[in-house]
Design brief:
This protein is of the alpha/beta class and about 230 residues long. The chain has seven helices and seven strands. Helix 6 links the parallel strand 5 and strand 6 (about 175-180). It binds NADPH dihydro-nicotinamide-adenine-dinucleotide phosphate.
Length: about 230
Amino acid sequence: MKTLLITGANRGVGLALTKVYLKAGWQVLATCRVPSQADELQSLTLRYRSLTIFALDVTDYTQVNQLASQLNGQVVDVLLNNAAIYGPKGYKFGECDETAWRAVFETNVIAPIKLAEAFITHIEASELKTIAAISSRVGSQTENTKGGGYLYRSSKAALNSSIKSLSNDLLPQGIKTVSLHPGWVKTTMGGPNALIDAQESAEGLKQVIDNLQDAQSGGFYSYQGEEIAW
Ligand code: NDP
Protein backbone atom coordinates (compact mmCIF):
# COMPACT_ATOMS: atom_id res chain seq x y z
CA MET A 1 0.00 0.00 0.00
CA LYS A 2 1.37 3.44 -0.99
CA THR A 3 1.31 6.32 1.48
CA LEU A 4 0.35 9.97 1.02
CA LEU A 5 1.16 12.71 3.53
CA ILE A 6 -0.93 15.80 2.83
CA THR A 7 -1.34 19.25 4.42
CA GLY A 8 -4.57 21.25 4.66
CA ALA A 9 -6.67 18.11 4.31
CA ASN A 10 -9.75 19.44 6.09
CA ARG A 11 -11.36 21.32 3.19
CA GLY A 12 -11.12 22.40 -0.44
CA VAL A 13 -8.63 20.75 -2.77
CA GLY A 14 -6.85 19.04 0.16
CA LEU A 15 -10.01 17.26 1.30
CA ALA A 16 -10.81 16.22 -2.28
CA LEU A 17 -7.27 14.89 -2.77
CA THR A 18 -7.59 12.92 0.47
CA LYS A 19 -10.81 11.30 -0.80
CA VAL A 20 -9.33 10.49 -4.22
CA TYR A 21 -6.24 8.83 -2.72
CA LEU A 22 -8.29 6.86 -0.17
CA LYS A 23 -10.61 5.63 -2.93
CA ALA A 24 -7.54 4.51 -4.89
CA GLY A 25 -6.50 2.31 -1.94
CA TRP A 26 -3.71 4.46 -0.51
CA GLN A 27 -2.84 4.97 3.12
CA VAL A 28 -3.42 8.68 3.84
CA LEU A 29 -1.73 10.61 6.63
CA ALA A 30 -3.99 13.66 6.55
CA THR A 31 -2.93 16.77 8.41
CA CYS A 32 -4.88 19.88 9.28
CA ARG A 33 -4.71 22.67 11.83
CA VAL A 34 -7.67 21.64 14.01
CA PRO A 35 -8.70 17.98 13.59
CA SER A 36 -11.54 18.34 16.14
CA GLN A 37 -13.24 20.81 13.77
CA ALA A 38 -12.57 18.81 10.58
CA ASP A 39 -15.98 17.10 10.51
CA GLU A 40 -15.98 15.86 6.91
CA LEU A 41 -12.41 14.57 7.18
CA GLN A 42 -13.22 12.86 10.50
CA SER A 43 -16.28 11.19 8.97
CA LEU A 44 -14.02 9.49 6.40
CA THR A 45 -12.31 7.52 9.20
CA LEU A 46 -15.56 5.52 9.53
CA ARG A 47 -15.17 4.29 5.93
CA TYR A 48 -11.39 4.08 5.64
CA ARG A 49 -9.10 2.42 8.18
CA SER A 50 -6.24 3.59 5.96
CA LEU A 51 -6.86 7.22 7.02
CA THR A 52 -5.10 8.76 10.01
CA ILE A 53 -5.50 12.41 10.95
CA PHE A 54 -2.79 14.52 12.58
CA ALA A 55 -2.83 18.10 13.86
CA LEU A 56 -0.42 20.26 11.90
CA ASP A 57 -0.07 23.98 11.42
CA VAL A 58 2.51 23.99 8.63
CA THR A 59 4.08 27.20 9.91
CA ASP A 60 4.74 25.65 13.33
CA TYR A 61 8.10 24.03 12.57
CA THR A 62 8.36 22.50 16.06
CA GLN A 63 5.10 20.69 15.33
CA VAL A 64 6.39 19.71 11.86
CA ASN A 65 9.52 18.16 13.36
CA GLN A 66 7.54 16.47 16.15
CA LEU A 67 5.25 14.86 13.57
CA ALA A 68 8.26 13.67 11.57
CA SER A 69 9.67 12.07 14.75
CA GLN A 70 6.29 10.56 15.65
CA LEU A 71 6.18 9.01 12.17
CA ASN A 72 9.75 7.74 12.35
CA GLY A 73 9.96 4.51 10.32
CA GLN A 74 6.81 5.31 8.34
CA VAL A 75 7.54 5.58 4.61
CA VAL A 76 5.94 8.46 2.67
CA ASP A 77 5.60 7.87 -1.07
CA VAL A 78 4.13 11.28 -1.84
CA LEU A 79 4.44 14.43 0.28
CA LEU A 80 1.71 16.74 -0.97
CA ASN A 81 2.11 20.35 0.16
CA ASN A 82 -1.38 21.68 -0.38
CA ALA A 83 -2.02 24.14 2.47
CA ALA A 84 -1.79 27.78 1.47
CA ILE A 85 -3.27 31.20 2.09
CA TYR A 86 -4.07 33.97 -0.38
CA GLY A 87 -3.70 36.83 2.08
CA PRO A 88 -5.82 39.97 2.06
CA LYS A 89 -7.34 40.50 -1.38
CA GLY A 90 -7.20 43.60 -3.52
CA TYR A 91 -3.71 44.87 -2.69
CA LYS A 92 -2.37 47.16 -5.38
CA PHE A 93 0.95 48.90 -5.86
CA GLY A 94 1.41 51.37 -3.02
CA GLU A 95 -0.79 49.42 -0.61
CA CYS A 96 1.29 46.34 0.17
CA ASP A 97 1.20 45.25 3.79
CA GLU A 98 4.56 43.74 4.64
CA THR A 99 3.20 41.82 7.66
CA ALA A 100 0.55 40.09 5.54
CA TRP A 101 3.14 39.46 2.81
CA ARG A 102 5.47 37.73 5.29
CA ALA A 103 2.58 35.54 6.51
CA VAL A 104 1.81 34.46 2.94
CA PHE A 105 5.46 33.58 2.34
CA GLU A 106 5.65 31.69 5.62
CA THR A 107 2.76 29.40 4.67
CA ASN A 108 3.19 29.12 0.90
CA VAL A 109 6.97 29.03 0.48
CA ILE A 110 8.90 28.34 3.67
CA ALA A 111 6.58 25.71 5.14
CA PRO A 112 6.63 23.34 2.12
CA ILE A 113 10.43 23.34 2.15
CA LYS A 114 10.58 22.82 5.94
CA LEU A 115 8.20 19.87 5.49
CA ALA A 116 10.42 18.43 2.77
CA GLU A 117 13.42 18.76 5.09
CA ALA A 118 11.60 17.17 8.03
CA PHE A 119 10.26 14.21 6.04
CA ILE A 120 13.17 13.56 3.69
CA THR A 121 14.13 10.21 5.25
CA HIS A 122 10.49 9.03 5.14
CA ILE A 123 10.31 9.95 1.44
CA GLU A 124 13.72 8.50 0.62
CA ALA A 125 12.67 5.15 2.07
CA SER A 126 9.57 4.95 -0.16
CA GLU A 127 8.98 3.49 -3.59
CA LEU A 128 7.65 6.60 -5.37
CA LYS A 129 9.85 9.23 -3.68
CA THR A 130 7.79 12.24 -4.70
CA ILE A 131 7.36 15.75 -3.33
CA ALA A 132 4.49 17.70 -4.90
CA ALA A 133 3.48 21.27 -4.14
CA ILE A 134 0.17 22.81 -5.08
CA SER A 135 1.21 26.04 -6.71
CA SER A 136 -0.84 28.33 -8.93
CA ARG A 137 -0.76 29.46 -12.53
CA VAL A 138 -0.68 33.06 -11.27
CA GLY A 139 2.88 32.32 -10.12
CA SER A 140 3.95 32.06 -13.77
CA GLN A 141 6.09 35.04 -14.81
CA THR A 142 5.26 34.46 -18.46
CA GLU A 143 1.52 34.54 -17.88
CA ASN A 144 1.59 37.60 -15.61
CA THR A 145 0.15 40.21 -17.94
CA LYS A 146 -2.22 41.86 -15.43
CA GLY A 147 0.09 42.82 -12.57
CA GLY A 148 -1.23 43.08 -9.00
CA GLY A 149 -1.66 40.14 -6.65
CA TYR A 150 1.78 40.87 -5.20
CA LEU A 151 1.54 38.71 -2.09
CA TYR A 152 0.13 35.49 -3.51
CA ARG A 153 1.72 35.70 -6.98
CA SER A 154 5.20 36.24 -5.60
CA SER A 155 4.74 33.42 -3.07
CA LYS A 156 3.80 30.89 -5.75
CA ALA A 157 6.66 32.05 -8.02
CA ALA A 158 9.04 31.58 -5.08
CA LEU A 159 7.50 28.18 -4.33
CA ASN A 160 8.10 27.13 -7.96
CA SER A 161 11.69 28.28 -7.73
CA SER A 162 12.18 26.33 -4.49
CA ILE A 163 10.66 23.21 -6.03
CA LYS A 164 13.14 23.54 -8.92
CA SER A 165 16.01 23.80 -6.45
CA LEU A 166 14.72 20.78 -4.55
CA SER A 167 14.69 18.89 -7.82
CA ASN A 168 18.32 19.76 -8.57
CA ASP A 169 19.30 18.78 -5.03
CA LEU A 170 17.22 15.62 -4.64
CA LEU A 171 16.85 13.97 -8.05
CA PRO A 172 20.32 12.40 -7.69
CA GLN A 173 18.81 10.57 -4.68
CA GLY A 174 15.88 9.46 -6.84
CA ILE A 175 13.42 11.98 -5.33
CA LYS A 176 11.15 13.73 -7.85
CA THR A 177 9.61 17.13 -7.14
CA VAL A 178 6.87 18.99 -8.98
CA SER A 179 4.76 22.18 -8.83
CA LEU A 180 1.12 21.71 -9.76
CA HIS A 181 -1.65 24.12 -10.74
CA PRO A 182 -4.99 22.69 -9.57
CA GLY A 183 -7.13 24.69 -12.00
CA TRP A 184 -9.56 27.39 -10.92
CA VAL A 185 -11.42 25.41 -8.30
CA LYS A 186 -14.69 26.04 -6.42
CA THR A 187 -13.35 26.31 -2.88
CA THR A 188 -13.18 29.06 -0.29
CA MET A 189 -10.08 30.38 -2.05
CA GLY A 190 -11.32 29.88 -5.62
CA GLY A 191 -14.82 31.22 -4.96
CA PRO A 192 -18.19 30.15 -6.39
CA ASN A 193 -17.48 31.32 -9.97
CA ALA A 194 -14.51 28.98 -10.40
CA LEU A 195 -14.53 26.63 -13.36
CA ILE A 196 -14.19 23.16 -11.83
CA ASP A 197 -15.08 21.36 -8.63
CA ALA A 198 -12.49 20.06 -6.21
CA GLN A 199 -13.04 16.42 -7.15
CA GLU A 200 -12.20 17.04 -10.83
CA SER A 201 -9.09 18.95 -9.79
CA ALA A 202 -7.99 16.23 -7.35
CA GLU A 203 -8.50 13.41 -9.86
CA GLY A 204 -6.39 15.27 -12.43
CA LEU A 205 -3.67 16.12 -9.91
CA LYS A 206 -3.40 12.49 -8.81
CA GLN A 207 -3.07 11.36 -12.41
CA VAL A 208 -0.26 13.83 -13.06
CA ILE A 209 1.56 12.71 -9.89
CA ASP A 210 1.02 9.01 -10.73
CA ASN A 211 2.58 9.46 -14.18
CA LEU A 212 5.43 11.77 -13.15
CA GLN A 213 8.72 10.90 -14.87
CA ASP A 214 12.25 11.79 -13.73
CA ALA A 215 12.57 14.11 -16.73
CA GLN A 216 9.59 16.15 -15.46
CA SER A 217 11.08 16.70 -12.01
CA GLY A 218 11.33 20.38 -11.08
CA GLY A 219 8.62 21.22 -13.62
CA PHE A 220 5.34 23.11 -13.37
CA TYR A 221 2.20 21.31 -14.62
CA SER A 222 -1.53 21.86 -14.58
CA TYR A 223 -4.00 19.29 -13.19
CA GLN A 224 -4.52 18.29 -16.83
CA GLY A 225 -0.82 17.52 -17.31
CA GLU A 226 -0.07 20.58 -19.44
CA GLU A 227 3.37 22.13 -18.83
CA ILE A 228 3.12 25.76 -17.65
CA ALA A 229 5.79 28.34 -18.53
CA TRP A 230 7.77 29.70 -15.58
P1 NDP B 1 -8.86 26.79 0.68
O1 NDP B 1 -8.69 28.19 1.14
O2 NDP B 1 -10.21 26.29 0.40
O3 NDP B 1 -8.14 25.79 1.71
C1 NDP B 1 -6.86 26.11 2.18
C2 NDP B 1 -6.38 24.99 3.07
O4 NDP B 1 -5.07 25.33 3.55
C3 NDP B 1 -7.27 24.79 4.30
O5 NDP B 1 -7.31 23.42 4.60
C4 NDP B 1 -6.52 25.55 5.37
O6 NDP B 1 -6.76 25.12 6.69
C5 NDP B 1 -5.09 25.19 4.97
N1 NDP B 1 -4.11 26.03 5.63
C6 NDP B 1 -3.88 27.36 5.48
N2 NDP B 1 -2.90 27.76 6.29
C7 NDP B 1 -2.48 26.66 6.97
C8 NDP B 1 -1.50 26.42 7.95
N3 NDP B 1 -0.73 27.41 8.43
N4 NDP B 1 -1.34 25.15 8.40
C9 NDP B 1 -2.10 24.16 7.92
N5 NDP B 1 -3.08 24.32 7.02
C10 NDP B 1 -3.26 25.57 6.55
O7 NDP B 1 -7.94 26.67 -0.61
P2 NDP B 1 -7.95 25.63 -1.83
O8 NDP B 1 -8.38 24.29 -1.36
O9 NDP B 1 -8.61 26.26 -2.97
O10 NDP B 1 -6.39 25.64 -2.16
C11 NDP B 1 -5.59 24.46 -2.10
C12 NDP B 1 -4.31 24.77 -2.84
O11 NDP B 1 -4.59 25.09 -4.21
C13 NDP B 1 -3.55 25.98 -2.30
O12 NDP B 1 -2.16 25.73 -2.37
C14 NDP B 1 -3.92 27.10 -3.25
O13 NDP B 1 -2.95 28.13 -3.28
C15 NDP B 1 -3.98 26.33 -4.55
N6 NDP B 1 -4.78 26.96 -5.62
C16 NDP B 1 -6.14 27.06 -5.53
C17 NDP B 1 -6.86 27.59 -6.57
C18 NDP B 1 -8.36 27.66 -6.56
O14 NDP B 1 -8.93 28.12 -7.57
N7 NDP B 1 -9.04 27.24 -5.51
C19 NDP B 1 -6.20 28.09 -7.79
C20 NDP B 1 -4.76 27.92 -7.78
C21 NDP B 1 -4.10 27.37 -6.74
P3 NDP B 1 -7.79 25.90 7.70
O15 NDP B 1 -9.15 25.34 7.42
O16 NDP B 1 -7.26 25.56 9.06
O17 NDP B 1 -7.71 27.37 7.38
